[in-house]
TrEMBL record:
Pfam families: FAD_binding_8 (PF08022), Ferric_reduct (PF01794), NAD_binding_6 (PF08030). The chain crosses the membrane at residues 20-39, 59-83, 138-161, 173-192. It is a multi-pass membrane protein. It comes from the Eukaryota. Keywords: Cell junction, Cell membrane, Cytoplasm, Disulfide bond, Endoplasmic reticulum, Glycoprotein, Membrane, NADP, Nucleus, Oxidoreductase, Transmembrane, Transmembrane helix. It is found in: Cell junction, Focal adhesion; Cell membrane; Cytoplasm; Endoplasmic reticulum membrane. The lineage of its organism: Eukaryota, Metazoa, Chordata, Craniata, Vertebrata. GO terms for biological process: bone resorption; cardiac muscle cell differentiation; cell morphogenesis; cellular response to glucose stimulus; defense response; gene expression; heart process; homocysteine metabolic process. GO terms for cellular component: endoplasmic reticulum membrane; focal adhesion; mitochondrion; NADPH oxidase complex; nucleus; perinuclear region of cytoplasm. This is NADPH oxidase 4. Its EC number is 1.6.3.1. Residues 288-403 form the FAD-binding FR-type domain. The keyword tRNA-binding does not apply. It is an enzyme of class 1 (oxidoreductase).
């Protein structure tokens, strides 16, 4: 089916516009810097020595400065919560590694050219100490060279450890190597302070390429010899005297040696602002999260899921937001984000999260909170409160799911444990749905295990009963899908009869589902929210952009997890 331009603009327009602006800034900055070092008179002698490598290294460096400053902004979680406003904020740093390769390759050529094109006329311009010096010495004995090599190693470790295979197999490796970004920025600050590349400061008294008569006289070199040496051409025979030559040609004569000075580190100007902003936010977050929470209860759910309910003074959050948990007894440095499944309200201060037990961190955390024999049991903190380890939270932070209550119609699709962002929304609707714009919610939950539905089965039953009692049965449309079955095809328990009638075996037929929603909500805008595997997300994303004959527009939002 054809793509709907209205839906495409709503879902992709802002993303592509931001990408276009970002690409334009990179191209413009690269080209402007390239021309400066290629044609700028202050870099005439440096360009003669290094050639194209100088232009490419400095142009790519300017692009890296821009991206090294921009990449810090998405790391400012509080700032991002204000900037995003909705799901349309995207982080894209795919081009950084490619520009880094260009920058490194150009500097390798520069190191070779410094050695091969060593000039005795401009000693202070040389990075090499003598002609044909081993370029490897320039890489490992100078501050820019050594810090550059270290930055390449750090960046390589961060990129390789960020791959999906390593994140899944050993998350600790990803976590600790990713925090090397602080080392990277410290090396970057040192890298630009070496002052190897210099520009000419006395352009007025020594125009680039001019003939210095003082040098020719002090070195007993005649003008014809100087001309042949520096211009690689014989002195014109038709001019018998040097004065006749200088009067009839455009050769510039100067009486002063060129003077050179190292550039001010432009990188400091680029990254100082974002880096100070990031450090200030980290300090604020540290102060805010310095007080531990009080754990109210810990509940073990089927399919290796654990629920923690807690309270903290003056803690406020909105449905769909997430927090970061830090337990020093598990790991002194490691922390993990978890979506709130229960938010504090005006009448109750309790909030909670659900954790899927996967990986070493969650396993150690579970062993600290739950006794080995605990199954579907609740531990009251007033009896065993001292046995709980200290737990700190940072947040809350915004996510796309906050917008689900701001649509008149929302379609929320969850895959497995991806239901957690919607649990806080359902809890909020259970408390009071009238203050929000939302008037119809389609809730689709796909699980492989029938027991997984019990995580929030009670919540779904209470929500269903509430709207039936208020004569609003069409407010929430619940559909549960069991993608795999081992013979049990219903949720055990008499109170779950309402859910069993909405339980389907197999996977949803997404195209028919979208057509049904479009037909029932003609000419309206439907917010589509997804938290689940990438395959599910891609399917919903594609369907949201497609055209329909009912004039319904689907605006796509998503949160992915690995």
């Amino acid at each position: 089916m054809a793509v709907s331009w209205r839906s495409w603009l709503a879902n992709e327009g802002v993303k592509h516009l931001c990408l276009l602006i970002w690409l334009s800034m990179n191209v413009l900055l690269f080209w402007k810097t390239f021309l400066l070092y290629n044609q700028g008179p202050e870099y005439h002698y440096l360009h003669q020595m290094l050639g194209l490598g100088l232009c490419l290294s400095r142009a790519s460096a300017s692009v890296l400065n821009l991206n090294c400053s921009l990449i810090l902004l998405p790391m400012c979680r509080i700032l991002l919560a204000f900037l995003r406003g909705s799901q349309k904020v995207r982080k894209n740093n795919d081009g950084k590694s490619h520009v880094t390769c260009v920058h490194v390759a150009a500097h390798l050529v520069n190191a070779l050219n410094f050695s091969v094109n060593y000039s005795e006329d401009f000693v202070e311009l040389n990075a090499a100490r003598y002609r044909n010096e081993d370029p490897r010495k320039l890489l490992f004995t100078t501050v820019p060279g050594l810090t550059g090599v270290c930055m390449v190693v750090v960046l390589f470790l961060m990129i390789t450890a960020s791959t999906y295979a390593i994140r899944v197999s050993n998350y600790d490796i990803f976590w600790y190597t990713h925090n090397l970004f602080f080392v990277f920025y410290m090396l970057l600050m040192l890298h630009v302070s070496g002052g190897l590349l210099k520009y000419q400061t006395n352009l007025d008294t020594h125009p680039p390429g001019c003939i210095n008569l003082n040098r020719t006289s002090s070195q007993n070199i005649s003008l014809p010899e100087y001309f042949s040496e520096h211009f690689h051409e014989p002195f014109p025979e038709e001019f018998s005297k040097p004065e006749e030559f200088t009067q009839n040609t455009f050769v510039k004569i100067c009486m002063e040696e060129p003077r050179f000075q190292a550039n001010f580190p432009q990188t400091w100007l680029w990254i100082s602002g974002p880096l100070c902003l990031y450090c200030a936010e980290r300090l604020y977050r540290y102060i805010r999260s310095n007080k531990p929470v009080t754990i109210i209860s810990v509940i073990s759910h089927p399919s290796d899921v654990m629920e923690i309910r807690m309270v903290k003074e003056n803690f406020k959050a909105r449905p769909g937001q997430y927090i970061i948990l830090h337990c020093p007894s598990v790991s002194a440095l490691e922390n993990h984000p978890f979506t709130l499944t229960m938010c504090p309200t005006e009448t109750k201060a309790t909030f909670g999260v659900h954790l899927k037990i996967v990986g070493d961190w969650t396993e150690r955390f579970r062993d600290l909170l739950l006794p080995p024999s605990s199954q579907d049991s609740e531990i009251l903190p007033f009896i065993q409160s001292r046995s709980y380890p200290k737990l700190y939270i940072d947040g809350p932070f915004g996510s796309p799911f906050e917008e689900s209550l701001n649509y008149e119609i929302s379609l929320c699709v969850a895959g497995g444990i991806g239901v957690t962002p919607f649990a806080s929304i359902l809890n909020t609707l259970l408390d009071d749905w009238k203050p929000y714009k939302l008037r119809r919610l389609y809730f689709i939950w796909v699980c492989r295990d029938i027991q997984s539905f019990r995580w929030f089965a009670d919540l779904l039953c209470m929500l269903h009963n509430k709207f039936w009692q208020e004569n609003r049965p069409d407010y929430v449309n619940i559909q549960l899908y069991l993608s795999q079955t081992d013979g049990i095809q219903k949720i055990i328990g008499e109170k779950y009869h309402a859910l069993n009638s909405r339980l389907f075996i197999g996977r949803p037929r997404w195209k028919l589902l979208f057509d049904e929603i479009a037909k029932y909500n003609r000419g309206k805008t439907v917010g589509v929210f997804c938290c689940g595997p990438n395959s599910l997300s891609k399917t919903l994303h594609k369907l949201s952009n497609q055209n329909n004959s009912y004039g319904t527009r689907f605006e796509y939002n998503k949160e992915s997890f690995s």
